[in-house]
Amino acid sequence: MSFKDLPLDARPREKLIARGAAALADAELLALLLRTGVAGKNVLQLAQQLLEHFGGLSGLLHTGADDLKSIKGLGGSAKRSELIAVLELARRAMGEKLRERPVFDSPDAVKQYLQLHIGPRPHEVFAVVFLDVQHRMLALEEMFRGTLTQTSVYPREVVTRAIHHHAAAVVLAHNHPSGSIEPSRADESLTQTLRAALALVDVRVLDHIIVSPGQSFSMAEKGLL
After folding, report:
1. 197: which DSSP letter?
2. Contact of 186 with 151, CB cutoff 8 Å
3. Please, which residues bridge with residue 129 across strands?
4. Mean pLDDT, residues 86-95 taken together
5. Taking Cα atoms as reference points, which of 216, 217, 192 lies closest to residue 205?
6. Structural class in CATH, domain 102-218
7. Contact at 8 Å (CB) between 8 and 14?
8. How far apart, in whole angstroms, are the C-alpha atoms of residue 115 and residue 103?
9. pTM score, whole prediction
């Protein structure tokens, strides 16, 4: 059935107006954002394809801009730009939440925030979440790129940025582009090195979180800190 053949009350826009956004399925909400389909697929079919390809809404939200190019109909800039804008809005909304309350009031929000920021990166990124005395987020900074070792991450720079932000604590984070979120021995060794360096300026390391799209690993939760 083509989109034009759908009854009016089954079309996403009309359904939303009549029954509210909560009444729409994921594909219907996504179809509203996409607005039009592509040759051979109406907009609902395109939305469903995206969800299936990326593993649902969570997978789609953790998808990088380059990954979207591989989907027929998203090669142009307009639809991709709109999806990327929604992703950025999600990041900012989560960031606002973490600035308003202690990060470990909602540990899952911290993981999701980090997944959205660095999870989809095709290269390894090391980031630090700087926290105030009440453990509210002051800033997130991506500090290093490339394979993480004690020689590629410089403790002095992390300490310098912690002092700059007047941080009382930090959450360390990096991504694993391979998809595996298990920490390596190098990850554990680096964590202890940074923990010791930051302790010299009375800054606590609360956690080291490893992320990939849709997955996360907390060293604190696993007793590795």
Report:
1. H
2. no
3. 140, 171
4. 76
5. 192
6. alpha beta
7. yes
8. 15
9. 0.69
| pLDDT classification of 95: cutoffs 50, 70, 90 | confident
Q: What residues does each domain of the chain span? A: 3-89, 102-218
Assess whether pLDDT exceeds 70 at residue 161: yes
151 Cβ partners below 8 Å, 6+ apart?
none
Most confident of 45-54, 140-149, 161-170: 161-170
Rg from Cα positions in the chain: 21
Which residues have a Cβ under 8 Å from the Cβ of 117 and sit 6 or more positions away? Answer: 91, 127, 140, 142
Contact between residue 140 and residue 128 where contact means Cβ atoms under 8 Å apart: yes
Residue pair 60/86 in contact by the 8 Å Cβ criterion? no
* Helix/strand/coil for 53: helix
For the residues of 41-98, what is the DSSP string, one character each? B-HHHHHHHHHHHHTHHHHHHT--HHHHTTSTT-SSHHHHHHHHHHHHHHHHHHHHHH
205 phi and psi angles, rounded to 5 deg? -95, 110
Contact 135, 102 (CB under 8 A): yes
The residue type found at 63 is T
* 46-89 pLDDT per residue, tens: 888 888 887 777 677 667 677 777 777 665 667 777 777 877 78
Q: Which CATH class is domain 3-89?
A: mainly alpha
Helix and strand counts by DSSP (H, E) for the chain: 9, 5
Phi-psi region of 196 (alpha: psi -120 to 50; beta: other; left: phi over 0): alpha
Q: What is the distance of C-alpha 176 from the center of its chain? A: 13
